[in-house]
Every structure is written in C-alpha cells, then in structure tokens.
Amino acid sequence: MIPMRTSELPLPLIARGKVRDVYAVGDDRVLLLTTDRISAFDVVMGETIPMKGAVLTQISAWWFGHLEGIVPHHMISAKADSIIDHVPALTPHRAAIAGRAMLCKRTTVFPIECVIRGYLSGSAWKEYTAHGTLAGEALPTGLRESEKLDPAIFSPATKAETGHDENIAVARMREIIGDEDTFTLESMTRAVYRLGETMARQQGLIIADTKFEFGRDADGRIILIDEVMTPDSSRFWALDGYEPGRAQPSFDKQPLRDHLDGERKAGRWNGDAPPPALPRAVIDATSARYLEAYKRLTGQDLPVG
User: Fold this and answer.
1) Residue 158: other Cβ atoms inside 10 A
2) Per residue in 131-181, pLDDT tens?
3) What is the CATH number assigned to the segment(s) 13-106?
4) pLDDT by residue (tens digit) across 249-272?
5) What are phi and psi of 261, to 5 degrees?
6) Alpha helix locations (H) across the chain?
7) Tell me, what's the pLDDT at 243?
8) Domain ranges of the chain
9) What is the CATH number of domain 109-241?
10) 13-106 with 109-241: one CATH topology?
C-alpha cells in the first residue's frame, strides 16, 4: 500500500481534517477516507506514516462489527469492493480506497467529544495534580498517576476546529445539547467503553481512556460515528506492564511525540508549523507501533482490500 497524504476522488469534498478526507455520497451517505497524515501537538507533519490510515479504518470497522446490537452506528461498509458496489464511480480508484475508506450514513453531528476515562492519565492527570479536579469537578484525594477510576468518569469536551478541545462539566454539556440527549450520549458512551475495555483486556490491552462522537441520522436516531477505540482516539496500554504511580507506554504515536519533544528541548523547533523533518527511523517506528496495536487488539495481521 502506497502511503497517502491527500486523496482525490470523483465525489464532492466536504472537508479535509488533520487525518481524514470526507466526501459526500448523495444526500444521505458520506465516504470517510483516512489518509496517512499524522499530527502531534496540533501540528500536521510533513511526512506520512505508512499503513496508519488503514489501521485506523480497520480497527474502527472491527469495533463496529462487535458493537452490533449494543449501539447503532454509521458504518455501511469498509470493504473496497462493497463500497464500489454502492458507489460505482469509485471503480477506477479501488487502490486508493482499499483498506482506508469507510462508507457511512450521514448524520448531524453533536458538537461534543464524549470522553470516558477509566484511568487517570494525560490532561486529566495534569488538572488533578494542579487542582484536584477534572473539568472543575473535585475528585477523591490521594489518586496516583495512571490509577484506575471506578467507575469510569464521563468527561465531555467541546470540539475545537483548531487547537485543543476543552474539557467541560456534564452540566455544561446539558446546557449545550439538552438533558435528554446528554443522558443518551453518556449512556451510549459507557456501553461502548464497557464492551471495549472488556474485549481489550482479553487481548492483554488496557483502554485507559477514549473519546467518541455521535450524530443524529435522517430517521432522528442517535448513532455512533467517526472512529472507534483506535490508537488516535484512545490510550492503549499493555496489561502485563501496567503499574500505577507512573506514566505508561502507549501503543500510539509515542515515538513521534518523543522525537518532537527532543527537538523542542534542543531548541530546533518552537512547537509551531512548519514541523521539523522526521527521520526515517521515527517514521518506521511509528508505523510499526500502529500495526502492533491492530494485531494486539484483533489477534490478526492487518487486512488490506
């Protein structure tokens, strides 16, 4: 599979995000094409990460398959030939969409990131050490970094077009979308996370935290959309190496973050675009980390096609 930075398909382009290109398929469907672009510290790198787009798409498809009967979702198909059956105009572009494209129902997206935290890490740990809170709400004293939170904490965030999402209290979420939809989104978030955390543990992985997006389809149903429990939207840890009281190694873009941290400390990068060029070793290590996450989670090598 040739690494892809930008796609060019014969469909109306809705948006190009940091990672995904979104195309309209009629009035009621969209094609999500996950490129091999990668961002860190809110800056998109100049290089691509081989196989990253296919890993994100196929992990999401794997989860959507297991979520049948748990929550409704937007996936129609993530298989190239099936997508082409639905959208014949893509026939000459099979190589471009194979493995990395997903045909989905179109929805009106809620302006909320539904974050759920099963362990105290990342931005939640930073806020807790500074203030003893999460999104301004008090947590028990004496918690350690990476400690399990029981029950998991639902921690919504507003979606930022640029920069970082902002953690908000559930009360603020109610003000934005209403009581009923807030209850539904939190309930669905918890249902998906329970399934994911249980299945991941069976494969020797911990999903420390993750975020979901939801939308309302043409029939008025609230459904799960976007990516699901991937290395980009979640924090994966190895169960056999888990030890609370410290940061945990993650199955994600950590080799990239480590390299960029080194560049900043050395004064070679100020944290803004354009980013520094990435050494081949960092690109290869990051690609390997994504592929390992897929295999550890599903028990199989990544299928492409």
Assistant:
1) 15
2) 999 888 899 999 999 999 999 999 999 976 555 678 899 999 999 999 999
3) 3.30.200.20
4) 888 888 898 899 999 999 999 999
5) -60, -40
6) 52-66, 80-86, 94-97, 122-131, 170-177, 179-202, 254-265, 280-298
7) 96
8) 13-106, 109-241
9) 3.30.470.20
10) no
